[in-house]
Amino acid sequence: MKKLLLIFFLFGALLLAKTTKAQVAVKGAFVQDSLVIGDKVFFYLTARYPQNKVILFPDSTWQYAPYEYIAKRYFSTETKDSVSYDSAIYELTSFEIDSAQLLRLPVFQINPFDTTFYYSDTDTLHLKELVTQPLPDTLQAQNLPLKTNTDYQPVHWLFNYPVLLIVCGVLLLVAAIGWLVFGEKIRKKYRVKKLLKAHQEFLQQFTAIELTLQQQFSNKLAEQAASKWKYYLENLDTNPYTKFTVKELSKLIPNNDLIAALKKLDAAVYGNNVDLHDSLTFLKSYAEDVFRKKLNLLTHGK
Question: Which has the minimum average pLDDT: 91-95, 132-136, 258-262, 298-302?
């Protein structure tokens, strides 16, 4: 009796499985009937199933051997009279050399506790051979059907932008670190060099005016000497030599010899023919002292 019940149960389960399977109809086939190695081929897959079922199609993670997956085009589900219809076209390629290459694809029915596979029929593509005459196993090099061409063939030069960006990034990083470490020394050296150059230019120009005035007096040259000295001194310290009169400067700089030299130079500017040798010598010496103090401050910070 138990054996009879077991047989009956197995028969019912088999019948139920066949009935369930019959509810999902899967079709699939290649669009072409042959293939060339490396060319694209197209395989269509369709599934007709009850509306209440959840059916999924294979994606790029499925094994399509001997074919390689390229892309998939999926069409929207169509439902009519509680029956749904899905379809997709798979774009594949193959690099195998088998003369006949087979493929069948499944659809997946998602159940509460498992997944049911429904496969399409197997379809075959035949390899289209482009080389119809086989080469012999051994052939002398001079007898090979080769064509020689020694003409220059231009090749596009590809610039390695990632390497360029890496090199530029490294250089910028090194430059930034170098500036943080040596930046203050570089700035100090630049200011010292600029100060020395300006002082040398002042000495050359002021000395030339001084020598010319010793040979022949000129109001314009006296004015040039006063202007050159004031502009230079104003760049060395913070006193407004070019903006203040001699009387106003005497209140800022308590140096009687300096004020006397500037007054004598002003008198020469306004028409008095006076001997400016001592005044110009003192003004140049005074500029030298201010320059040395500024240079010592930049070099030693004191």
Answer: 132-136
Q: Is 19 a residue whose pLDDT tops 80?
A: no
- Per residue in 279-297, is it b (16+ CB within 10 Å) or e — as a string? bbebbbebbeeebeebbee
What are the residue boundaries of the structural domains of the chain, listed by start?
A: 23-127, 184-300
Find the helix or strand (DSSP H, E) in which 220 lies. helix 219-236
pLDDT tens-place string over residues 106-164 = 999 999 889 999 999 999 999 988 776 665 666 666 666 667 777 787 878 888 888 99
Say if residues 42 and 32 touch (Cβ distance below 8 Å).
Answer: yes
| CATH 2.60.40.10, applies to 23-127 | yes
Distance of CA 94 to the CA centre of its chain: 37
Which amino acid does the sequence have at 8?
A: F
User: Residue 87 and residue 90: Cα distance in Å, rounded?
Assistant: 10
- Residue 11's alpha-carbon distances to 2, 14, 16, 79, 115, in angstroms, are 14, 5, 9, 33, 22
* Bridge partners, residue 30, by sequence: 43
